[in-house]
Amino acid sequence: MPAHLPRADVDAVIDGGLESYGDSAITDPQELRAELPRVRQD
Fold it and tell me: CA-to-CA distance for 2 and 33, rounded, in angstroms?
């Protein structure tokens, strides 16, 4: 999970494409960016 990577690295991961490895995987770039702050807090 790229939650603790610098923003440039997160952008590179997202720009490389998001594959689904399960039903709950986030593959939408906007949805992932919205979820990252929550993950960073946990």
Answer: 10
Q: What is the DSSP string of 1-42?
A: -GGGS-HHHHHHHHHT----SSTT----HHHHHHHHHHHHH-
C-alpha span between 10 and 23 (Å, rounded):
22
Q: What is the pLDDT of residues 21-32, one digit of tens each?
A: 999 999 999 999
pTM for the whole thing? 0.73
The residue assigned the tokens 């952008």 is 11
Main-chain phi, psi angles of 27, to 5 degrees:
-115, -5
